[in-house]
């Protein structure tokens, strides 16, 4: 069995345990899961059991020590889940295909990084771009998704060119569009058209009077097969200019592109199915990004800067699309602050350990070997990243879909967190009950962009994205990698949340995270079994959600000395790779 196959099996088992109910290993350290639909049982030797669900397993097998691969396990669990939850099994074959594809691509990522560990720009006369390093670090992807690296139908040559894990880079593909078919908006001094023309550079020959439209090269080929694009090309309202200009780098989302010497990033439509949806920009997302930019610019940003000066929202101040040609959309995004790194990339496992592991190792060496460094780092992260996000929601009714990939951490020269940022024009929620409050800065905010949601839905989403995916995910990663004890981190989290006080903005989310026996959690395996696309349909029904036992509440009953530092005791856990 390959390492990539085993790591995917771990993902499948973690997802199953999270989404279908609690299970515990037996006294012999073996987890036994009965699968009555298939009439069999899966047995897994536990090497790390996590309070947050980031379990690690050694040998995984069927009865009689029969080995099992990830695709077979996906089929077994998929059919089991379909019957258990009274669902059709019509999407199980698709789940298995995605798992196979994800295993293959994960293996390629690991092999490439082991073969060529040096980052782009490294060497005696160059310093690697820290932001880009973190964006290229997600070799394995989401640890609670059955197929995090599936990118059907991306070919192997295309994967080498377009994958951040393989350090891909490429010039943009450009079209020229008649202004009559161009839609756009800008909160900048320059229009979106002017910004894009400047990014294209003088070498791109754009016909007089037409607008330069950048497209991801993979998307350019795909959209040219669509009727709307073909009609515009035939009429002359759209002209294919081909690839041109300097190379751009794909970030962890694949569709957001970065060029170190450019003043902006570009978020482009990309019709590949990645995790739970195709990644084409919707009109409401384009409007949402600029709407929130204007909301912040009208006064909310100043309040945020005054109250939490280390935290910012990365702006999406302009956008452009071609009417009649879905798939030709571009969002213009500001660059992150210096020394900002994607949280998901910071904790992602590499063959020689995660970036966070190296960072904490250096900090520990500077502190004479004191092992509580990981706990201290986590506590600072909570204050400069998590508390500001909670403040925005509690005080102003603006919620951020702050999962690990959307969250940036700003580090000082030593590696301590000093601030943070949120990015993503898709993931803003305006709390329905706070519309009047937010309207003092921007009347009718959230209506045109379809970002106004019922209070209960917003609380569920923020509880998952920030509470479960971001914070509990960070705790689980640090525990599994041996960087700190999960029990200590959970107690620190409780202390920080309790310090906000019962009247924190009148919001109930903090109280729920502290005391509710369960929290709501997105179920990626069940979402795939249902065949859902998270960008289609109402927010409340785009994904499957389940109740998850709340380890933050459970930490309340832990011994009082749980947070006492033990500088000599090594945390459990270790490297995944």
What labels would you give this structure?
four-stranded antiparallel β-sheet; 23 strands; alpha+beta; 18 helices; single chain; 20% strand; 577 residues; 38% helix
Radius of gyration: 24 Å
How much of the sequence lies in strands comes to 15-25%
Number of strand elements: 23
* Biggest pleated sheet: 8 strands, antiparallel
Give the rounded overall mean pLDDT. 92
Assembly form of the protein: single chain
* Poorly predicted spans: 560-571
Report strand order across the widest sheet.
Answer: 6-14-15-10-9-8-5-7
Find the structural class using helix and strand composition.
alpha+beta
Which geometry do the CA atoms define? globular
CA-CA gap between termini: 14 Å
Q: Percent helix among the residues?
A: 25-40%
Please count the helical segments: 18
SSE layout and pairings?
Elements: H1 3-20, E1 30-35, E2 40-48, E3 56-62, E4 66-67, H2 70-84, H3 92-115, H4 130-135, H5 156-162, E5 170-177, E6 182-186, H6 192-200, E7 211-215, H7 217-223, H8 227-235, E8 238-250, E9 256-258, E10 264-268, E11 270-274, E12 277-279, H9 283-307, E13 311-313, E14 318-322, E15 329-334, E16 340-342, H10 343-347, H11 355-366, H12 373-396, E17 398-400, E18 407-411, E19 417-422, E20 428-431, H13 435-438, E21 452-453, H14 455-480, H15 486-499, H16 509-515, E22 518-522, H17 524-529, E23 545-549, H18 551-554
Helix pairs in contact: 1-2, 1-3, 2-3, 12-14, 12-15
Task: Give an overview of the whole structure.
The two termini are 14 Å apart. Among the domains are: 3-107, no CATH class; 169-300 and 316-330, no CATH class. The chain has an eight-stranded antiparallel sheet with strand order 6-14-15-10-9-8-5-7, sandwiched between helices. Strands 1-2-3-4 form a four-stranded antiparallel sheet. It contains 18 helices and 23 strands. 38% of the residues lie in helices and 20% in strands. The chain is globular and about 75 Å long. The protein is α+β, with helices and mostly antiparallel strands and 577 residues long.
């Amino acid at each position: 069995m390959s390492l990539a196959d085993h790591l995917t099996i771990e993902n499948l088992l973690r997802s199953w345990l999270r989404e279908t109910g609690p299970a515990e290993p037996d006294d012999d350290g073996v987890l036994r899961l009965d699968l009555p639909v298939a009439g069999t049982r899966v047995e897994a030797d536990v090497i790390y059991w996590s309070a947050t669900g980031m379990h690690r397993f050694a040998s995984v097998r069927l009865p009689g020590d029969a080995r099992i691969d990830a695709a077979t396990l996906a089929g077994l669990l998929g059919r089991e889940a379909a019957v258990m939850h009274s669902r059709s099994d019509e999407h199980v074959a698709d789940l298995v295909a995605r798992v196979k594809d994800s295993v293959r691509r994960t293996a390629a990522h690991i092999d490439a990084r082991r073969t060529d560990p040096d980052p782009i720009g490294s060497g005696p006369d160059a310093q690697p771009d820290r932001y880009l390093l973190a964006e290229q670090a997600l070799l394995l992807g989401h640890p609670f998704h059955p197929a995090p690296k599936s990118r059907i139908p991306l070919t192997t040559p295309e994967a080498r060119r377009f994958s951040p894990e393989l350090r891909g880079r490429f010039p943009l593909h450009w079209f020229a569009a008649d202004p009559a078919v161009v839609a756009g908006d800008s909160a900048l001094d320059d229009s979106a058209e002017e910004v894009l023309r400047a990014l294209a550079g003088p070498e791109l020959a754009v016909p007089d009077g037409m607008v330069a439209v950048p497209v991801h090269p993979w998307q350019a080929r795909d959209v040219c097969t669509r009727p709307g694009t073909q009609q515009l090309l035939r009429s002359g309202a759209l002209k294919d200019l081909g690839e041109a200009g300097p190379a751009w780098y794909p970030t962890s989302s694949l569709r957001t592109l970065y060029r170190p010497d450019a003043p902006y990033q570009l978020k482009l439509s990309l019709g590949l199915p990645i995790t739970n949806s195709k990644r084409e920009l919707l009109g409401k997302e384009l409007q949402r990004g600029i709407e929130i930019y204007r909301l912040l610019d009208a006064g909310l940003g100043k309040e945020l800067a005054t109250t939490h000066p280390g935290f910012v929202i990365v702006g999406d101040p302009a956008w452009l699309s071609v009417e009649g040609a879905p798939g030709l959309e571009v969002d213009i995004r500001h660059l992150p602050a210096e020394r900002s790194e994607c949280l998901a990339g910071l904790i992602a496992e590499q063959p020689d350990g995660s970036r966070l592991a190296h960072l904490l190792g250096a900090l520990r060496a500077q502190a004479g070997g004191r092992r509580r460094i990981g706990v201290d780092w986590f506590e600072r992260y909570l204050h400069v990243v998590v508390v500001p996000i909670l403040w925005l929601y509690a005080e102003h009714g603006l919620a951020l879909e702050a999962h690990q990939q959307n969250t940036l951490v700003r580090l000082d020269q030593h590696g301590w967190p000093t601030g943070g940022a949120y990015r993503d024009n898709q993931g803003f929620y305006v709390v329905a009950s706070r519309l009047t409050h937010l309207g003092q800065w921007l009347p009718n905010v959230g209506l045109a962009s379809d970002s106004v949601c019922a209070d209960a839905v917003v609380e569920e989403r923020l509880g998952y994205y920030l509470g479960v995916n971001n914070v509990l995910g960070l705790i689980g990663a640090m525990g599994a990698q041996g960087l700190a004890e999960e029990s200590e981190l959970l107690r620190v989290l409780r202390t920080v949340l309790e310090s906000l006080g019962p009247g924190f903005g009148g919001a109930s989310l903090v109280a729920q995270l502290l005391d509710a026996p369960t929290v709501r959690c997105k179920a990626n395996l069940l979402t795939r079994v249902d065949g859902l696309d998270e960008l289609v349909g109402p927010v409340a029904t785009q994904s499957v959600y389940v109740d998850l036992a709340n380890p933050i509440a459970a930490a309340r009953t832990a011994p009082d000395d749980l947070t006492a530092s033990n500088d000599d005791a090594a945390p459990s856990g270790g490297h995944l790779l």
